[in-house]
Design brief:
Length: 402
């Protein structure tokens, strides 16, 4: 007998037929005598639709507290429907909202972090031999307000439960049958991997591979929760995410692209010490996440600083810089929202020189201009025109993966 945590994404529960399909997957494990805790996301595009509804009411931006109140409703619908399907099939089940399942988060609405899970209720339901269905992506903060964990946060809910109840396995069911060398929707020749390490998966997820939320991978590594990513529509083994993998070391493990990026440039800044500090200190105070930074040597005692931010933070970034015009002295601040960050990831590149030049050659051959470059031990990222992103990913994939 095992304790199994299963998570089903939005597409896996998109309509009544899919809900019954998921109910059957759960029952199959339950019938074998296992204890099963299930985490579900909102059905299909529900979360996006709810965001659109909020924009109809106030396009200038609703408060994050009310947004979380709204978005958490998506998961409330899917847990109850899934529980009803399991009831109809004749098995004992209970659905729980995040707070009922003991999720305590910090107060950062829309991007809350899980502080702890109080597992008493979960364990009591398991004790009663109930199948437990938990709403992903949500918790309760110290003001007793509902919070959400950021887009894709149900993955993190599932891993957090698995860590908290010491589950034997945490299975993440989605609409593809595992983790591929690149997004199979963009790269037809992408290959499925049987295993991948936490570190490589964490980089891929952070660099834009939507298949797993990066916080969920971070947490799985921290608490040593073995993850399996698999399809809810095809009954076959998926990809295992764990500490060490046996497979032959490839030069790179995968390619990710991220279009949720904007490039901001401050032109003609005074070329004196402390300027970069002033700029990034101000942005840090506003919680703007800076990614790639490039400083160019300018002329006439001036310089330019260019950096990237998440698209939804571009507006406040530019406003914050404009507000510094008096104290900073610069000519102009410009931005570009149609850029894409394309990255390669792999622990193998640390010991193999020439990986960067191979990537740049692939881009050159494909006629793609590189705007910015950033590297670390196990990844290389380039910023390019968003319109060329798909071509770039395919060209790099062709070069590295056969
Ligand atoms: P869910 O709703 O189940 O959470 P998501 O849409 O969040 O599903 O994630 C699954 C999607 O991630 C896939 O449909 C696929 O297009 C995308 N994806 C991006 N990168 C990869 C990758 N390297 N391997 C597999 N899928 C990927
Ligand atoms: N429903 C939420 C979202 O769409 C959480 C999730 O799917 O994991 O982001
Ligand atoms: Mg997801």
């Amino acid at each position: 007998m095992s304790l199994i945590v299963k998570k089903f994404g939005g597409s896996s529960v998109a309509n009544a037929e899919r809900v019954f399909n998921v109910a059957n997957i759960i029952i199959e494990d339950y019938k074998k005598g296992n204890n099963v805790i299930v985490v579900v996301s909102a059905q299909g595009d529900t979360t996006d639709d709810l965001i659109a509804k909020a924009k109809e009411i106030n396009p200038d931006g609703v408060s994050k507290r009310e947004m979380d109140m709204l978005l958490s409703a998506g998961e409330q619908i899917s847990i109850s429907l899934l529980a009803m399907a399991i009831e109809k099939l004749g098995y004992p089940v209970v659905s729980l909202l995040g707070w009922q399942a003991g999720f305590v988060t910090d107060s950062k609405y829309s991007m809350a972090r899980i502080k702890r899970i109080n597992p008493e209720r979960l364990l009591a339901e398991i004790e009663k031999k109930h199948i437990v269905i938990v709403a992903g992506f949500q918790g309760l903060n110290r003001y007793d307000d509902v919070t959400t964990l950021g887009r894709g946060g149900s993955d993190t809910s599932a891993v957090a439960i698995a860590a908290s109840v010491k589950a034997d396995v945490c299975q993440i069911y989605t609409d593809v049958d595992g983790v591929y060398t690149a997004d199979p929707r963009l790269v037809k020749k992408a290959k499925k991997m049987s295993e991948i390490t936490y570190d490589e998966m964490l980089e891929l997820a952070t660099l834009g591979a939507q298949i797993l939320n990066n916080r969920s991978v971070e947490m799985a590594k921290k608490y040593n929760v073995e993850l399996e990513v698999l399809s809810s529509l095809q009954n076959k083994p998926g990809t295992i995410v764990k500490e060490v993998v046996n497979v032959e070391k490839m030069l790179i493990k995968g390619i990710a692209s991220d279009n949720n990026v904007s490039r901001v440039s401050i032109i003609g800044l005074e070329d004196t010490p402390g300027i970069a500090f002033k700029v990034f200190n101000q942005l840090g105070k506003r919680n703007v996440n800076i990614d790639i930074i490039l400083q160019s040597i300018g002329r006439d005692k001036t310089k330019d600083i260019t950096f990237t931010v998440q698209k939804d933070q571009r507006k406040e970034t530019v406003e914050a810089i404009e507000a510094m015009k008096q104290s900073l002295k610069f000519q102009d601040v410009v931005f570009d929202d149609s850029v894409s960050k394309v990255s390669i990831v792999g622990a193998g590149m640390e010991t193999h020189p020439g990986v960067a030049s191979k990537m740049f050659e692939a881009l050159f051959d494909a006629g793609v201009n590189i705007q910015m470059i950033s590297t670390s031990e196990i990844k290389i990222s380039v910023l390019i025109d968003a319109a060329q992103s798909e071509r770039a990913v395919n060209a790099i994939h062709d070069k590295f993966v056969d």
